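Lab notebook, entry 159. We have the chain sequence and a SMILES string for flavin mononucleotide, and the next step in the workflow is to get a structural model of the bound complex before anyone spends time on docking refinements. Request logged below.

Task: model protein plus flavin mononucleotide, output structure tokens.
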Amino acid sequence: MKTLIIYDSFFGNTEQVARAIGSAVGAPQDVTVVKVADANLEQLQGVQVLLVGSPTRAFRPSPAITQFLAGIPAGALQSVNAAAFDTRSLIDDTVPGFLRLMIKWFGWAAPKIAKRLAAKGASLALTPEGFAVRGSEGPLVEGELERAAAWARGLLQSA
Ligand SMILES: Cc1cc2nc3c(=O)[nH]c(=O)nc-3n(C[C@H](O)[C@H](O)[C@H](O)COP(=O)(O)O)c2cc1C
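Result returned:
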């Protein structure tokens, strides 16, 4: 299955998740992992599975991911199985209560990406998922790369 994974990343954590997912979902010749800055609409040609991932920034995807999604023509993802993921700050005891409430209220990048993928015609093959980093710059919380790979393998079951 021709699979494209488009991600954005400022500190490298979402890139690590994207690459772990790439290794989990198919043979290297079938899977392309590309940073959104280097992605273009032609790369969507013939793609059967599309994954889009972003760091959560101010409760939403990065501007580059939002812009890329906005540029996909209406209906262009009609025969595509899609899924969305993000990275986000770990919520632990050091996060003040008001901030926790805001985070729960305003949410994360992945559900917003999923909504936009569906709006372009894609079938959502997996529930949007987030992977936690420590602070803003990471590293990823232990076990998150394995959890990302397991999450993405769900695509193989739904194919
Ligand atoms: C400007 C800025 C805004 C952020 N906003 C959020 C947020 O709203 N919710 C959240 O959970 N994490 C937030 N974070 C933490 C990022 O999600 C974290 O930096 C990101 O997952 C790291 O991924 P990357 O290494 O791929 O850039 C923010 C970080 C920065 C620097």
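Notes for the group: The two ends are 9 Å apart (CA to CA). Worth checking against the assay data. The longest strand covers residues 81-89.
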